[in-house]
């Protein structure tokens, strides 16, 4: 008798400035839901979600920061044994992009050498109707800046919207495709 292999578990952490949409991206990916005025996550924020990529199924164990980034620097134990990380910024908030740079640096210094990192510019819905007229765009971080950082640091790069679901599944599929198959 043969048993199917259990799905390989992948620990994934989210990093990024408060309010960029980390919990919202998880909510979209896991429950396909969005809340407009979401209360900050308090307490435990651990969810699992299976993701099938071709022949392979990965079980993501997703650790959200539970709002700790508001109060203190995150303990390295949070990401030390993670196989994957999403570093999230808000494309309408330049300071959040600067913070994302710091997180990438910290991960490269402190996390596992073979961690797969995706840089995620969230809230794409706020700029998707931008056009070339005189109105000032809400976009404050260009695609080129995001892609540039990703290229420099060897990261996957996506612009997403947790609100409309734009590119959200692609982030998790993209990460899964880069994780070495150890089964
Ligand atoms: P976190 O602190 O990084 O986990 O951010 P949250 O997920 O709590 O989101 C902060 C706020 O941004 C909430 O009011 C969300 O509804 C909103 N938000 C999150 N993602 C998006 C998005 O893609 N588009 C827009 N317009 N708002 C978003």
Automatic annotation (TrEMBL):
Gene giving rise to this polypeptide: VPS21
Residues spanning the membrane: none
Residue numbers of the full-length protein present here: 1 to 183 of 218
Molecular-function annotations in GO: GTP binding; GTPase activity
Species, as recorded: Cerrena zonata
Keywords: Nucleotide-binding
Protein name listed in UniProt: Vacuolar protein sorting-associated protein 21
Domain of life: Eukaryota
């Amino acid at each position: 008798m043969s048993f199917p292999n259990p799905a390989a578990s992948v620990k994934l952490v989210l990093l990024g400035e408060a309010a960029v949409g980390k919990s919202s991206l998880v909510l979209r990916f896991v429950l396909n839901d969005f809340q407009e005025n979401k209360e900050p996550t308090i307490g435990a924020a651990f969810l699992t979600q299976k993701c099938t990529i071709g022949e392979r199924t990965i079980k993501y164990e997703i650790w959200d920061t539970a709002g700790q980034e508001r109060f203190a620097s995150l303990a390295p134990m949070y990401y030390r044994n993670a196989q994957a990380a999403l570093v999230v910024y808000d494309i309408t908030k330049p300071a959040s992009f600067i913070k994302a740079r710091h997180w990438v640096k910290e991960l490269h210094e402190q996390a596992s050498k073979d961690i797969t990192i995706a840089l995620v510019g969230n809230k794409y819905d706020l700029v998707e109707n931008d056009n070339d007229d005189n109105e000032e765009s809400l976009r404050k971080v260009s695609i080129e800046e995001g892609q540039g950082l990703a290229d420099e640091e060897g990261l996957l790069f996506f612009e997403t919207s947790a609100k409309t679901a734009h590119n959200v599944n692609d982030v998790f599929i993209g990460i899964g495709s880069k994780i070495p198959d150890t089964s």
